Amino acid sequence: KPFWLETWGHLVGRRSLAADSDALGAASQPHSPTMLSIVAGVQEYIQAMVDRIPGMKILIVDTETIGIIAMVFSQSDILEHEVFLVERIDAENQEKIKHMNAICFLRPTNQNFLLLSKELKAPKYNEYHIFFTNVVPHARLEQLACCDEYEVVHQVQEFFADVYAINHDLFSLNLPSTIRLTEDHSRWTSYEESVFERIIEGLLSVCLTLRVLPSIRYTASSDLSRQVAFRLQTRITEEHSLFESVERERKGDAIPPVLILLDRRNDPVTPLLNQWTYQAMLHELLSMENNRIDMSRVPDVRPELREIVMSAKQDSFFEENRLANFGDLGVSIKKYVEKYQHDTQNTAKIESIEEMQRFVDEYPQFRVLSGNVSKHVAVVHELSRLVEQNGLLEASQLEQEIACSENRQEHYKAVLEAVRGTNLTNMERLRLVLLYALRYEHDGTIASLKELLRGKGIAEDQIVLVDQLLRYAGSHVRSGDLFGNKSIFAQARSAVASNFRGVENVYTQHKTLLRSVAESVMQGKLKESTYPLVEGSRLTAPAGERRPQKAIVFVVGGATYEEARDVAELNKGLAAEGRCIVLGGTTLHNSRSFLSDVAQLGIRGPE
């Protein structure tokens, strides 16, 4: 027997929600049991982990698992489970608390094994209960067992909570840059290899958390999505014992769930567009990281609002309004403020966002009674300021026209005017030229627009993004025509929209490519020639019976909140049939993070 098995064999266990849902106990789930919820799945793992060690305890986390927990549990939630203290495993000079037991919740990385080995050689706590978020190689167990000289380790488990759960139907792997994976495999460094493996680990854990053993499909034109698909299928086969109960549960199902892998390069337009629904606007204009927003640069911001949390799980107003367009959002907040006024018999007149903000500032008791709403008032006030200051209404209308209709002459003239004008920021000027270049990439007018950007003082490293973006996601890379196959419908929508005056019409007419793919998947009409099935993954049902109950759509290269909105809208229609889609991405992009990733392509020089 290997050493670790002799000394630690009785301590080691594997728990997937798939394999052992009864032992874990179900977390409260707002959807029906047939619906998938990545938030509820990750919650279940973490709740089971902290509850199985009774009494007060220390929770030891790493740079990633602290974020994974924070997405689904607030600090007060964690305290309710008798967690006395949360410590980072890489923190220096931790004091010894010998009477306390420790739960270690860690990703199985080389760095964490080194830190954990060091910890076990000089233990600070009474007992150690170790939970890894993914599969641990036997050699690593051997290493840890050798370090456990004081026999303080009481259990080692694999709990597959290895993704950042944002909404019930949305998750991310928090990998900000994956663009180098699109280069030839021979050029990958150990960093690219580790990023690739993190994608596989994340997808494996999602399948286990959602209790699905899927048919895997990939994008035929994307070698990267093919590599991910085949590697994931291999890992599922290797870890087959974890999926045994899923197979038993699903044996009667005619149609297996589907996991479809998309490549960001097939739709570079969506991450570039300005957004007009609440959650998407927050990320585009203020940037959200692990549901947190840095408001420290907002003019005259109150101290308690310098950093805020926007979590659908912890904030009912946000849950109700995260998909609301900007116009409806203002109405919803006004109603909240008016309700408070009615309850307190306050008669201040409130007609605009500015007046709402002034009201909140002038009545401190309102902030106390309704802290959550005053947070949203401050945020919407800032969003309004940025929309006006950056000329976003004007810019966005032109963006939507370029994205949704074909009219080179008119578009060139409009972009020329917008770039020359004084209403837009340089970011908006660049964004318009990038969108124009994607639609009319073989047109000679792009060079003159780049010259115009130079004349506006835009730096060369920004202007070169035009060429880098075409290299990354030009028509030679994309499968099908991102623009052409939608333009007739888009023009019709645009004509209808122009008769209305609502934000939801003029500024959100664009529908993502991912939406049409997800619709085709759920209708059982997705072409196998464009999105092939991995050999060895579960066979699909006969033709005519291919409408899956559940689908996971994953974007290698990063998803967006506009795509999340589209999936949420599709889920509303599917819910009545007990069917649903979960969206994931290597990251959640806004325009700046997307362009930062594209900029990485230039660092090594031309291919």
Summarize the structure.
The chain has 607 residues and is of the alpha/beta class. The protein has a 6-stranded parallel sheet with strand order 1-6-5-4-2-3. A 6-stranded mixed sheet has the order 7-8-16-14-10-9, with helices on both faces. The chain has a 3-stranded antiparallel sheet with strand order 11-12-13.
Q: Unreliable stretches, pLDDT < 50, 5 or more residues?
A: 18-33, 485-504
Main sheet properties:
6 strands, parallel
How far from one another are the termini? 50 Å
How many β-strand runs? 17
Short key terms for the protein model shown above:
47% helix; 14% strand; 27 helices; 17 strands; alpha/beta; six-stranded parallel β-sheet; six-stranded mixed β-sheet; globular; single chain; 607 residues
General description of the model:
With 607 residues, the protein is of the alpha/beta class. Helices cover 47% and strands 14% of the residues. It is built from 27 helices and 17 strands. Strands 1-6-5-4-2-3 form a six-stranded parallel β-sheet. The chain has a six-stranded mixed β-sheet with strand order 7-8-16-14-10-9, sandwiched between helices. The chain has a three-stranded antiparallel β-sheet with strand order 11-12-13. Strand 7 and strand 8 form a beta hairpin. Helix 13 (326-344) runs antiparallel to helix 16 (371-389). The longest helix is centred in the first third of the chain and has 20 residues, at 190-209. The chain is globular, with a radius of gyration of 26 Å. Residues 18-33 and 485-504 have low confidence and may be disordered.
